[in-house]
């Protein structure tokens, strides 16, 4: 069953302000959103959604896009590929949206690809698996760097620090499996050896068997490829059950929940990420992120729960940039306009979609975790 969701209950006042922006407009254009708003990944999906809403609030307050106020129609994909397909189908066939943000999960974007392509409605997704932009779709784009960039940086780090024998521990889904495959290929390129490949189902909380195999393999490092709500329990149990060596990880370690659960067991984790989520706007790494966080707090009432909020914000801002350049909300023309974006400064960095087949960012950074704090690895 589909439900049209508004803001979180705690943001009623912000919702009223947002509604007022487009209530006064004569022309309104709808864009769509689908992502996990309930279930284990709800905190991440809500951050993605809220970041998009902050962008919309800014855009509408400044006059909208092509003289239109922009309204977002939202659906909960519940972290399910099947539900994502239903959400995408309703957005393009019933709601007739001009553009879509979503999903957080790469497998959900991949499953929705045929629906998006047939409808000729551009989608900017927040999942980092390379797979869904390697499948020939021309209406799919990404709002940050893909995980292959992260994998390469982590492999370079491992080689430089003589972490030559590595076990990969990952979720058994599109995101985790794609990360494991990518690392396997990249490890060979850098002369690293994979001495184990262990997986688990998202939401599992007992990893005893897999960790016993990891400890027995005695690797120089373990690469953990999972999203934020799984990383805390995995990391904690890995240490509790006898692995004390280096851990290499994905961007999900920037999620506050991951660090809260892992506690000191996350010390020494080296992760690859596009950006960090500070404790306050004043601690932001640059003025653009500081301004975004100030606007986020003003509208939503608190700091984001995850850096997925950055991805949602960039996605909507890129849509506005492309639509203004195109002079229309026509899907094919809008797609071509996104493909022509070059030198656009977003929260993720400088976007260049020209010739990128949907990819617009080509760099990530490495960070080390110590006592809940992050420091960039040079």
Q: Would you mind describing this structure in some detail?
A:
This protein is of the alpha/beta class. Helices cover 43% and strands 19% of the residues. The chain contains twelve helices and 14 strands. The strands form three sheets. A seven-stranded mixed beta sheet has the order 7-6-8-9-10-13-14, sandwiched between helices. A five-stranded parallel beta sheet has the order 2-1-3-4-5, with helices on both faces. A two-stranded antiparallel sheet has the order 11-12. Strand 1, helix 2 and strand 2 form a beta-alpha-beta unit. Helix 3 runs parallel beside helix 4 and helix 5 packs across helix 6. 53% of the residues are buried.
Distance between the termini: 49 Å
Helix content: 40-55%
Give the biggest beta sheet: 7 strands, mixed
Class by helix and strand content?
alpha/beta
Order of helices and strands: HEHEHEHEEHEHEHEHEHEHHHEEEE
Give the overall pLDDT as a whole number: 92
Please, what is the oligomeric state?
single chain
Global outline: globular
Number of strands: 14
Give the percentage of residues in beta strands.
Answer: 15-25%
Please work out how many helical segments DSSP would assign: 12
Strand order of the largest sheet: 7-6-8-9-10-13-14
Model regions low in confidence, pLDDT < 50 over at least 5 residues: 1-25
Rg is 20 Å
Describe the structure using short key phrases.
378 residues; seven-stranded mixed β-sheet; five-stranded parallel β-sheet; 12 helices; 43% helix
List the helices and strands and how they pair.
Elements: H1 12-23, E1 28-35, H2 42-61, E2 69-76, H3 81-93, E3 100-102, H4 106-119, E4 123-125, E5 140-142, H5 147-160, E6 165-171, H6 174-189, E7 193-200, H7 208-217, E8 221-225, H8 228-240, E9 247-249, H9 256-262, E10 270-273, H10 287-300, H11 308-326, H12 331-339, E11 342-346, E12 349-352, E13 365-370, E14 373-376
Parallel strand pairs: 1-2, 1-3, 3-4, 4-5, 6-7, 6-8, 8-9, 9-10
Antiparallel strand pairs: 10-13, 11-12, 13-14
């Amino acid at each position: 069953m589909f439900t049209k969701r508004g803001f979180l209950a705690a943001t009623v006042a912000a919702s009223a302000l947002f509604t007022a922006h487009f209530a006064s407009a004569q022309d309104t254009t709808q864009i769509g959103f689908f992502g996990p708003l309930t279930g284990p990944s709800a905190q991440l999906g809500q951050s993605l959604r809220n970041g998009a809403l902050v962008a919309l609030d800014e855009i509408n307050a400044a006059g909208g896009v092509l003289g239109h106020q922009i309204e977002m129609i939202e659906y909960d994909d519940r972290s399910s590929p099947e539900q994502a397909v239903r959400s995408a189908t309703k957005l393009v066939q019933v709601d007739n949206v001009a553009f879509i943000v979503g999903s957080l999960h790469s497998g959900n974007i991949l499953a929705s690809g045929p629906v998006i392509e047939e409808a000729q409605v551009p989608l900017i997704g927040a999942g980092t698996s390379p797979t869904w932009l390697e499948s020939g779709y021309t209406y799919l784009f990404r709002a940050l760097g893909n995980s292959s960039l992260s994998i390469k940086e982590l492999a370079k780090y491992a080689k430089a620090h003589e972490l030559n024998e590595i076990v990969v521990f990952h979720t058994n889904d599109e995101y985790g499996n794609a990360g494991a495959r990518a690392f396997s290929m990249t490890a060979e390129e850098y002369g690293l050896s994979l001495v184990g490949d262990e997986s688990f189902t998202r939401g599992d909380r007992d990893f005893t068997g897999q960790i016993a195999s990891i400890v027995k393999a005695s690797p120089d490092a373990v690469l953990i490829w999972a999203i934020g709500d799984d990383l805390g329990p995995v990391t904690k149990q890995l240490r509790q059950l006898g692995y004390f060596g280096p851990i290499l990880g994905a961007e999900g370690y920037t999620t506050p929940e991951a660090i809260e659960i892992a506690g000191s067991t996350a010390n020494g984790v080296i992760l690859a990420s596009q950006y960090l989520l500070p404790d306050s706007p004043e601690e932001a790494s640059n003025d653009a992120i500081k301004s975004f966080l100030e606007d986020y707090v003003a509208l939503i009432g608190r700091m984001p729960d995850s850096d997925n909020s950055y991805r949602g914000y960039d996605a909507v801002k890129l849509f506005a940039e492309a639509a203004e350049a195109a002079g229309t909300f026509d899907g094919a023309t809008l797609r071509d306009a996104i493909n022509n974006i070059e030198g656009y400064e977003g929260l993720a960095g400088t976007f260049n979609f020209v010739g990128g087949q949907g990819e617009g960012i080509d760099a990530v950074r490495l960070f080390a975790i110590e006592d809940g704090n992050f420091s960039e690895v040079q």
